[in-house]
Amino acid sequence: MKRLYVIGMGPGSMDQMTPQAKKALEESQVLCGYTTYIELAKKWTEGKEVLTTPMTKELERCRMALEQAEQGKTTAMICSGDAGVYGMAGPILQMSEEFPEVEVEVIAGVTAALSGAAALGAPLMHDFVVISLSDLLTPWQVIEKRLDCAGQGDFVVCLYNPMSKKRTDHLRRACEILLQYRPATTPCGWVKNIGREGQTSKILTLGELKEEQVDMFTTVFIGSSSTQVYSGHLVTPRGYEAKV
Ligand code: SAH
Question: Is 217 in the pocket of ligand 1 (CB under 6 A)?
């Protein structure tokens, strides 16, 4: 069978990868992916063919992987976190209609919302939304509308792509929208380089977050009206204590 695995490798460290992802990597003859992730998978790249493309060549990367698999080589497309969360699983499956002989298998990984939440405590105990602040593929007005709705719904908000060199004010604008619905004292947090060298995190208020400089390797958490800090951990109580 001609097989293409689309693998979520987790946030970075090897022990945050699922055994299923490890097995699929080991089985693969060809590894495709963005250079950074291939670096992370280095342990498995020995003896395997490696094909990398720059960050912006996503569709070429998908086609390349499908073509390799079509030639009969078991291939792995590697993504950080989960491949189906702002990753390559979607475009690969869309394109796979052109490659009927290739069986695509998506392998789940630990997405940054989950690994980041664990690093901060338990901020996602209750209903939450994930919003990417990247307007490369989504118009900024749509992002603003989603932030506004999240504010109205009092959801805990997890932000991906909070800032880049070009988009330096997106986080500030996101905070301004949420400040219309929740106080500046609302507990928030960010985690940078989860599972990688230099992992750092910080708990701060929404008012402080508005002025914070973060980067594209950071995931941001904005508490709901019930999120609190318990001994240095961000927690959104689910309400068990009210029942006791
Ligand atoms: N597929 C990935 C998300 C890719 S979008 C996943 O499921 O995690 C890229 C964004 O994800 C980054 O801008 C950042 O907000 C977040 N991210 C991914 N890996 C991260 C890590 N190791 N540490 C912190 N944030 C990360």
Answer: yes
Judge contact between 163 and 136, C-beta under 8 A: no
Q: For residue 227, report the distance from its CA to the centre of ligand 1, in Å.
A: 23
CATH topology of domain 112-235: 3.30.950
How far is the C-alpha of 92 from the C-alpha of 77, rounded, in Å?
9
CATH superfamily, with its number, for domain 2-107: Tetrapyrrole methylase, N-terminal domain (3.40.1010.10)
Q: What is the pLDDT of residues 135-191, one digit of tens each?
A: 999 999 999 999 999 999 999 999 999 998 888 899 999 999 999 999 999 999 999
**Nearest CA owner, ligand 1 atom 24:** 218
Nearest residue (by CA) to ligand 1, atom 3, is 86
CATH 3.30.950.10 intervals, the chain: 112-235
pTM over 0.90: yes
Angle between helical axes of 170-179 and 140-152 (0-180°, round to 10): 30
